[in-house]
Write a structure and sequence with these properties.
174 residues, 7 strands, alpha+beta, seven-stranded mixed β-sheet, Aminopeptidase
Length: 174
């Protein structure tokens, strides 16, 4: 995957982040509702990215961008969120621009990032909450060594107001 790299989002990249979200807004609004709501305009996105930089410093949120090395465009996001330092554990979420789906980019990016964040932050557990309708994300989780731990019923409300079940996948590091 030398054509792609993964690095933390910075405020200076607000325009690239806005473009990625804006071009994928309709397909992201249900399961990346917070991000979509905070990036309606470029100005909103700049403000949101400034808040994100604070969260990175506080070690409460780490958004990693998947970057196409050839075009320098952001083509995806892997976010490390809902961090509980008492264990320590975190949740991973990811998406990729629709033009890059099905090419193994998310799997390769997630796999590399997992190794990096476990080493850097000492996470003992990573988890993914995934809709049972999202077969591609389920495949990435399973291929990355996550195991289905169960289904959390009525766990998430989409932007359309639908309350849905989420599959809970976990990966332990000892």
């Amino acid at each position: 995957m030398q054509d792609f790299k993964v690095e933390l989002l910075t405020k200076s990249n607000s325009d690239l982040f806005f473009h990625l979200i804006d071009t994928n807004r309709n397909r992201l609004e249900d399961f990346f509702a917070g991000t979509v709501a905070r990036t309606l305009t470029l100005e909103d996105t700049k403000e949101y990215c400034a808040e994100i930089e604070t969260k990175i410093k506080e070690k409460t949120y780490f958004p990693y961008m998947i970057i196409d090395q050839k075009t320098k465009m952001f083509i995806g996001l892997i976010d490390v969120k809902n961090i509980d330092w008492s264990i320590p554990k975190a949740e991973l979420g990811a998406f990729i621009d629709s033009n890059f789906e099905g090419k193994g980019i998310v799997f390769n990016s997630v796999s590399g990032l997992i190794d990096e964040i476990v080493k850097e932050h000492g996470f003992k557990k990573l988890l993914c909450r995934i809709s049972n309708r999202n077969s591609r994300s389920i495949n990435v989780a399973l291929k990355s060594g996550f195991e289905l731990e169960g289904t959390i019923r009525y766990d998430y409300k989409t932007t359309k107001g639908e309350i849905v079940d989420l599959n809970y996948y976990g990966k332990i590091f000892k």
